[in-house]
Amino acid sequence: MTSLIRHLNCATMSPRGTMGGRITPTRMVCHSLLVEGPNSLTLVDTGFGTVDLEQKRMGKAFVGLMGPALDQAETAASQVTALGYSIDDVTDIAVTHLDLDHAGGLGDFPNAKVHVFADELAAAKHPQGPKEKNRYIQAQWAHNPLWVEHRVQGDSWLGFESVARVSDDVLLVPTRGHTRGHVAVAVRRPSGGWFLHAGDAYFSAGEKENPPTCPTGLSVFQTLVQVDKKARLANQDRLRSLHAEHGPAAGTAEPVTMFCAHDATEFDALVDVTD
Ligand SMILES: [Zn+2]
């Protein structure tokens, strides 16, 4: 049973968007979770790592477009140690996918097991076509992590099928489309119900609602980087239904508090929630 869950922002980014006709920076976060269990400490997504920031390993185009803060204090490694843990206390890392802003910190935890869907690892190691070739940074896993490759299993979770287990309290929920093997990560809350880290399955809090809303720039971006449009939109529909039927407002016995990786308003609403 999980005993403590913390929300960490492992990278602030300030891409320039338009608001009311003016070009203004938008604040984005890289929302990670640190999940303490009786015998485990699990990180969900890692943001950028220390070497990414030192060497600007994300590349000039990414840095220019996304405006990352490049603040070492935001790395998962800095935050884990500031909380009083050692690096080797982190036993497991679950990644929603292996894009550069989610996998950058893997190298800072070289002894952790890294849980990923097999399709995602195959895409990252052997990218096909320009979209996959441009999105992954091989150097982020040059240390050869202890990969735990999960394959489609028979488990189901609140209507989602083929769910894989990192543990009884941490589940990988297939939600492909943004990438080949994208998953959402469900974490059982000690206070009851679940958090669902939806990764990049959606980008804006308004996309959880019916009808969905999303700033134009983010809609265009999601379309540009998707590898499977049909699957991505179908999974957004399923997540919307989950939010309607199991969200905090639905009054169910097992409420699901869902958030995506990059929406700052969702992060701000949860950062002080520790349970
Ligand atoms: Zn992302």
Your description of this structure?
The strands form 3 sheets. A 6-stranded mixed beta sheet has the order 1-4-5-6-7-8. A 6-stranded mixed beta sheet has the order 9-10-11-12-13-14, covered by helices on one side. Strands 2-3 form a two-stranded antiparallel sheet. It is built from 9 helices and 14 strands. The protein is globular. With 275 residues, it is α/β, with parallel strands linked by helices. It has one domain: Ribonuclease Z/Hydroxyacylglutathione hydrolase-like (Metallo-beta-lactamase, Chain A), CATH 3.60.15.10. Bound molecules: zinc ion.
Give me a quick take on this structure:
With 275 residues, the chain is α/β, with parallel strands linked by helices.
Major sheet = 6 strands, mixed
**How would you state the average pLDDT, rounded?**
94
Total individual domains: 1
In which order are the strands of the major sheet placed?
1-4-5-6-7-8
Let me know the CATH homologous superfamily: Ribonuclease Z/Hydroxyacylglutathione hydrolase-like
Number of helices: 9
Ligand list: zinc ion
The low-pLDDT segments are none
Number of strands: 14
What sequence of helices (H) and strands (E) makes up the elements? EEEEEHHHEHEHHEEEEEEHHEH
**CATH architecture level-2 label:** 4-Layer Sandwich
General shape: globular
The CATH C-level name is: Alpha Beta
Task: Say what the CATH topology is.
Answer: Metallo-beta-lactamase, Chain A
Estimate the strand proportion. 15-25%
CA-to-CA gap between the ends? 12 Å
Provide the gyration radius in Å.
17 Å
What is the helix fraction of residues, given as a range? 25-40%
Structural class: alpha/beta
